[in-house]
Amino acid sequence: MLDFERLRELRARHPGAVAEAAAVRARRDALLDPDGRLMIVAADHPARGALGVRGVADAMADRYDLLRRLAITLQRPGVDGVLGTPDIIEDLLLLGALDDKIVIGSMNRGGLQGATFELDDRFTGYDAATIEAMRFDGGKMLTRIDLGDSGSVATLEACGRAITELAGRGLMALVEPFLAHREGGRVVNDLTAAAVRKSVAVVSGLGATSAYTWLKLPVVDDMELVMAATTLPTLLLGGDPSGDPEQTYAQWKRALELPGVRGLVVGRALLYPPDGDVAAAVDAAVSLVRAGSPT
Questions:
Q1: Domain that holds residue 66
Q2: CATH number for the domain including 40?
């Protein structure tokens, strides 16, 4: 049972409890378990104003419901950790849900969904110094590139700086690249293999070193061509949960068998499955991740 009353009281009366919880949290000895795989749940969508799931515009707006779903996910065998913004990570910390889990802080959430400035994706969340101070494992950055939008260059510069700062602390830099463009004022990601390959080439060169860089990539047709474009360790992006779950799982399974793919980072598709059974959805994804072997 999650103690939300205690959470609210700590938030109001003892804000220092966040740092205290981070200081005593049990950590894993290594980023990767012996099987070399990772299963991470993503929960950083709300901070970018992206609350919709499967046609329900405000599905992620209820924070208590989201935290319950995250707690179920983190308790399932084979789930390694969570990716989120400070507000969500700190709620989970105070609820005692992050012991022995990988924690990746979401760094740039300023490119609000639907905003005119969406592609000037400012770093409004975690920074490398705080991620280190909180004893977390890395930082994630969304890197959307629109060759026709000058805001993209600011994002690229900021991402390069963040990669350098994380690497200097020995922390994972998880980079999620897309080539993007606007259609009717809406940002659309190009999910062709050629576009994803190009985005991979661009972000792989960001920062003063790539030693700690990981990629978070969408599953697309001809995924083998995408994975041939990089030697960097890669996690697969779960994507927008709009299709049939069985078809989605089949796509993940094929992609997880490719060289260089280390696992999944999935959010809405598992937290809000069509049948509402979060545990079953998570277990199905974990079975796919753990079935493969790294190459």
A1: 4-291
A2: 3.20.20.70
